[in-house]
């Protein structure tokens, strides 16, 4: 069974590249905070990549998102 990797990234091109790069994982993508929280709850990923440059995302919000 493949582990799940959550890619939190608003750039669709980067999402696709990471999905291709991590083809050994079940890659789930989220383009904003709301969909990221939903994906975290639904898939419980073993690995998360987070774009710290997301609009309106600060380091403290990222920490809260991952708790």
TrEMBL record:
Q: Does the keyword Transcription regulation apply?
A: no
Superkingdom assignment: Bacteria
Give the signal sequence positions: none
Q: Where are the transmembrane segments?
A: none
Cite the entry's keywords alphabetically: Phosphoprotein
Q: Which residues form a coiled coil?
A: none
- Modified residues annotated as 4-aspartylphosphate in this record: 51
Gene3D superfamilies, A to Z: 3.40.50.2300
* All residue ranges annotated as the Response regulatory domain in the record: 4-67
Q: Which InterPro entries match?
A: CheY-like_superfamily, Sig_transdc_resp-reg_receiver
Q: What is this protein called?
A: Response regulatory domain-containing protein
Q: What is the organism of origin for this protein?
A: Vibrio algarum
| Taxonomic lineage from the root | Bacteria, Pseudomonadati, Pseudomonadota, Gammaproteobacteria, Vibrionales
